[in-house]
Design a protein that fits this description.
single chain; five-stranded antiparallel beta sheet; 7 strands; about 20% helix; globular
């Protein structure tokens, strides 16, 4: 069984870094649209997207942002983290099939278990697609929890 282990406030040090990786599939793009309510045809309609400056469907910017949330929750600091703030700058589009690597870096520790982390998202070519900062409340107790098995989700039209 796979577990998710956290890094407590006391264990975190400035400069610590961790990475989380995910690939954008067509199904994930459609599921994100369904869950978020963002049904902009730029994300869902290949013909519409072909007539834009991107020439093809692209991911919602917040899909990349949601990966930062996933990294904070599962990698660093991990289980028990409370997400407080996020700044994001979208630098490049994310295309179907892109593999994104999210790197979190501890920038500073603040009172009351607050931690500010630099957030950088790069595609498989090393191009920066998103950059920002997150502020979290880091856990104070060490946790190791089973990684949940999520149900299979299918898309029907």
């Amino acid at each position: 069984m796979t577990t998710l282990d956290n890094i407590t406030y006391d264990e975190l040090k400035e400069g610590d870094a961790a990475t989380f990786t995910r690939t954008l599939t067509s199904d994930e793009l459609v599921l994100f649209a369904a869950v978020s309510g963002d049904v902009n045809p730029l994300h869902l309609d290949a013909d519409f997207a072909a007539a834009t400056l991107f020439k093809e469907r692209i991911a919602h910017g917040m899909w990349s942002g949601s990966l930062i949330s996933g990294a904070l929750a599962t990698v660093m600091p991990g289980p028990g983290t409370i997400y407080l703030e996020q700044s994001l700058a979208f630098k490049r589009p994310v295309r179907l099939g892109d593999t994104l690597s999210i790197t979190l870096t501890v920038l500073r520790k603040e009172p009351r278990n607050r931690v500010v982390l630099g957030c950088e998202v790069r595609n498989q070519h090393g191009d920066q697609v998103v950059v920002g900062e997150a502020k979290v409340i880091a856990p104070t107790e060490k946790l190791s929890v089973p990684k949940p098995t999520l149900p299979a989700i299918s898309i029907a039209s």
